[in-house]
Specification:
Structural class: mainly alpha
Number of helices: 7
Shape: flat
Radius of gyration: 24 Å
Largest sheet: none
Distance between the termini: 26 Å
Helix content: over 70%
Strand content: under 5%
Order of helices and strands: HHHHHHH
Amino acid sequence: MNARSFLINGLIAGLLGGLIAFVVAIGVGEPAIDDAIAVEEAAAAPADTAVHDHDHDETEEGAAHSHSHGDEEGGITRGQQAGPGLATATVLVGAVLGGLVGIASAFAAGRFGRLSPVATTALVTAVGFVAVVLAPWLKYPPNPPATGSGDTIGERTALYFGFLAISILAVVAAIIVARQVLAGRSAWLATAVGGAVYLAVVGVAFAVMAPIDEVPSSFPANTLFEFRVGSLITQAALWLVLGVVLTGLVNRAWNRDVDDLARRDAAAAL
């Protein structure tokens, strides 16, 4: 097996993961977004009435204001955002992540003691999910539409990506330390030490970096919870499918290589 094989398998796994993530997002993510938009429109309807002095009833005001979400002529409609737009985004993100995980697995193969390429691939995928998705989600969980200030979007973006970078660098540091420990001791001890290093670095970043709390107190807690959990489930589905498919493809390629090597050894012995 070589890096090209890992990359191709990663792209295939990522594409499949993106497709599954799209299906999951439709079921658990989009309903919460629709609810959040409805809350935004309900809050904006009285202000819209005061500015334009409309005599329409509340239903008509909500329908008119809903055009701000993409129903205006020549704009992107909500249906396009939740359909082709979402599908394109999840598939592209899945392919990129799959390629990166494939390359990372190729680099890590053979560098963790007696772990096979299959086990190494599974480990890389699990660590990637924790570092790229779970840890940032815990520190800076996503917020639905109309819950953040446009004036702070730059600061919020910088904080999120800053924490993401620290999380990834913490993984690199943990791997370096774990390999040093692995050189003279058990794999379990190396794993525990590496995990402790990651948790320590991320824990410090968690405590030091500024929090983000811009969700209005009037925003429904259930909608906020459903949106955040739906976002996490969607990403978890992508990474789960990516890991399962990529591990399966690597396992097939690894077994094929082992069989080829055995046949060559047998032929050489004759």
